[in-house]
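Q: My labmate handed me this sequence with no annotations at all. I'd like to see what the chain might look like in three dimensions before we decide whether it's worth expressing. Could you predict it?
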Amino acid sequence: MIQSEIVKELYELTQENRKGIEFYAEAMDRLARCENTLDTLEARAFIGAEGPVVERQARAKLASADARLERDLAKAQVERVRAKLRMIESSIMAQATAAKMVQAEMKL
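A: Here is what I predict for the chain of 108 residues:
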């Protein structure tokens, strides 16, 4: 691999990493909104239910099941973005190492 290819690859990885950071921020925002919706729906359902506490909790969980699913999907999305960012960062480190090796070879 020649130095210009490494520089190009590093540039592309850096750009992808920047986009990934934006996606991460958006995913975290979505997760926060989903958690807020879940908490609100569950609390309202609990307050509106009658009967013993255990029964009210069960009804509240049932009433907020769709919101819980959306929250879980949002969490999964955050984890996917994190994993992708870690992969990109590893690639950047590998390319940086390759660049140092090419520089060392050029000095010889």
